[in-house]
Amino acid sequence: MAFLRFFAQRLLYLLLQLLGVVTITFFLVHLLPGNPAQALAGQGASPAAVKAISHQLGFDKPLPQQYVIYVNNVLHGEFGNSIYTGQTVLKDLQQRIPATLELVTLSMLIGVVVGIPLGIYSGLKQRGVISRIVFFYGMLTGAVPDFWLALILVFVLFFVLGWAPPPFGRLGVLTPPPHVTGFYLIDSVLSGQWDVLVSVLKYLALPTITLVFVYMGNVVKQARSSVEEVSQSEFIEYARACGLSERVVLRYMLRNALAPVVTVIAITYGFLLGGAVLVETVFSWGGLGQYAVQSITNSDYAPITGFVLVAALFMALMYLVVDVLYAVLDPRIQY
Amino acid sequence: MKLSRWWRCGALLAAVALLGTACQSSGGSGSSTSGGEKTLVYATPALPLTYDPCFITGQQTAEILTNLYSFWAYYKVGTLPDGAPGDSTQAGENSMGPGMLKSWDLSPDGTVYTLHIRQGAKDSYGNEMTATDMQWVLDRVSHLGGCPFVTSNMGITDVSKQVAVVDKYTVKVTLSAPDPIFVRMLAVNNGAAVGPEARKHVTSDDPWAANWAKANAAATGPYKVESLSPGVQMVLVSNPNFYGPKPEITKIIYKEVPQASNRVAVLLSGQAQAARDLSQDQLNQISQNKNANIQCTTANDMMNVAINAASGPTANPQVRQALAYAVPYDDIIKSVFNSRAKRLYGMVPSLYPAYIGDGQYPYSLDINKAKQMLASAGYPNGFNATVMIDTATPEHERAAILLQNSLKQIGVNLSIDTKPIASYTDALQGHTYGDLAIWQDHSLVIDIDYHAKLFLAPGPPPSFNFSGWLNPEFIALEQQAVAMPGGPQRDTVLQQMQAIFNQNVPWLSLANTPTCFAFLKKVSGYVWHTFNQVYFSDLKLGS
Question: For residue A182, what is the nearest residue in chain B, using CA coordinates?
């Protein structure tokens, strides 16, 4: 019951947070330089034509009035239309989200599967060779920008060695599998198109390696420091003194060390939804980040606010999941 | 410890699997020829944003629409001064040949055009283009988005009164005065022949089918859209209903590769056969590769420096003249454009009909003369100024640095103000950039009066008259030329306009800049067109 109350409370906060995000984003976006009506009108358009387009798009209304209309639309599930594609922002986002989620999720999965064991191991064996390598890697990931690594990988593995596929997005020039989920990995399996699956894996490899290399560092470092801290704590010494087996001690240790790691994973995952923009651009990924950048360049207001709202929602949901997982991992936390 | 071994093995296996996947040969990309069908992969920084010619934004949208929609008329293809094939522009209205229109007649007084539509020309949905459809398209153009300038430059102010359907394939347009660029306006992409299918999607709320046309193309040109994956690629295939010959390359994969260095990489690796929007350095790199080449045409594109003619020291014409004597023209052409650009002598490049001639533009680099003129203008010690540039265009920065160094010699201390594209465009069109601003553009219609009306039009900002230069004599001549039939008298007026321009220097004419595309050597047939876009139907793909 207490948990349900907590959950409801968090959902209410989430709504308020989103309202705040909508408000700030709306006004910030409208402060951006660039007149979309002028851009749409193109070369040779008269001021009257620009004014007419501005009226047609509702940009000539006072900003507070535009804001009220926008919030009202959002409450009804409408994020507006892109002034260029003519599609609803929701439809645009639906087309782009699977690309980003597939890349980010796969990268995080690998980051977790590889990173946590590495972090734990180096936390336990602080003087070993692997531990030193992990320490160096942790330092390196803090200094290597993701887009730089992406460009280097493309240059070396694709251009020089010819081993990797070109930075042509998710599937090169092959036809995508029939749409079921939008995730090519899943859709190609569902449709039994194994050649497409192989191609999808190939095209996923370089961007995934980039994201894993750069962002797994957070997971590794957090796991390592948590394990280090917990392994030196009194209750672990007490457990050992009581003669408990190393397996049991390790279980105690992990249970206590993993909570902060979960936080880091969730934050990194949430961040990557919108933060992988440069990697998406290098690999022509066609995901959310690329969509947001294109919308900003074109002063296409509705997609920008729609993107920020989705990213904020995703981030807020990640925090919610973290809170729930905390309760699962750490029984001392009561809601 | 057992578990540690598992962790080590797991981590190692995962890393090997990832690298192994990445390092298998790529396959599945590049050009292909099967059963007579040829595919070309074209690397572009962005995909088109709309299919509606009335809302063209960006060069990529323009390029795709140029290949999807037929124009009513086209420039005839001839030979450019450098020997390359390209649109023939010198003969004015006589430069034009058929398109969706089979032919046209002009009444002796120059006010009535009778336009003959090709019989049997259909859009990609199978609807035949008729006179009623053309009338609707012109009406649409006169009302929608950024299109009305097309009909207004054709002398059409009211389609319902001036455009009449004579029979199924004949349209009559009645003008109040001769229009010297009427036929050339029929070759402007905004006014392209949108297929009759669009008319079927008219609603009471959307009388011009604008909502439908944003996401659907009733193609009348050589290609139609097969598929679009937003942010990834667009696939065009040859349009079976096109009235002209079937293009040799039957499939175009317009592949979004935002990173310019990656566009070079995919081209040189053979994964793409064509690429656009590359910097001069990247073009140099490609030109050194044995399997690729670049096609650069220096025709109608210009790089200029807008000068604030409304306020500050640069409002004085003598100061502007002094600045024109301090521009390192040759250095810019050589260093910024690797000698692919040419001198721009005045307000238009030399391919314009009635061009006044190189010799009439007196300005070349002469620091002493510039100093003297600046002193006699009341600025013997020079002044401080800013030059605004677009961060996205590396050529801007290089030209600005050369300009900065040169102007320093006459006491003008130039600071470079770099702005991202949206701010840059706002400041340029709003005339709020300060003293100077580098810009690069071209006219869609190769006519001096059209060019003047576009880039030197009177009227408040925002406008393309970036310098805000207003000269009553120039404006009067421009308005006179609008309604004069083409011929020697009009040419004289156009030359007078150029002379006034040269005398007043509303902008610094830095260079006649090249339009470049990169191709693999097995791609041939490129032809320069006034829009500075690739017509895919020109291209041929060897094995």
Answer: B229
